[in-house]
Structure prediction request, 249 residues.
Amino acid sequence: MAKSLLIICRQAPWSGPGAREALDIALAGGAFDLPIAMLFLDDGVFQLQPGQHAAPVQQKDLTANLQALPLFGVDALYSSVRSLEERGLLHQALSPATETLNDAALTALLGQYDQVITL
Amino acid sequence: MKFAIALFSAPHAPSSRRALRFAEAVLAGGHEIVRVFFYQDGVYSAASTPVTPQDEWDTAAAWSALVRDHQLDGVVCIAAALRRGVLNDEEAQRYERDAASLAKPWELSGLGQLHEATQLADRLVCFGGP
Prediction:
């Protein structure tokens, strides 16, 4: 049976190529039909905020990559309640939709996956 | 035990040196490294162009020696490498750049190689990252 992988993404969308490169790992794994999940943690939750304007900071929008996750079979998406709350995003409509987890649930989540990559 | 080692940080980062030491310890302990995979700023450790002063530690040279001496499978993510200017001959020609800058014996390949390594290994150990 294929080993499962949890990718923890902690980078804000415009802080460098980190967020895009974490998504690329997920999309590549999804293309191989591997069991992949993503957890948006710390500044990584900023990726879920809709209506971002990438062009004024000479960046390429990440929205298409994020929306592609389910198409590539990566539909186990999680975010941290604490990270969302600290950044004022807890009660906002976010995209793509994620399952929000408190700290105890995060700990349990880590134990459910064979491998973990944090970026 | 079979290990896959992924490096995400630049050569000057302490985590990069730890990754190298860990790889040496894995081999010294009689274990196997199925693949070393460089991603994000880790690709700089596979560049042939940096010049390190003679009395300073040269991470890239140490990695090259380790991969060569133990005939490891050393793979650098091609997308991350292109973005950061680490090109082999083929890519330098393709994108009409003046010089190739990928050190021997590294190979450029895709992220599928990272996934394959995690499937083949008992443990994936990552170094660097936020």
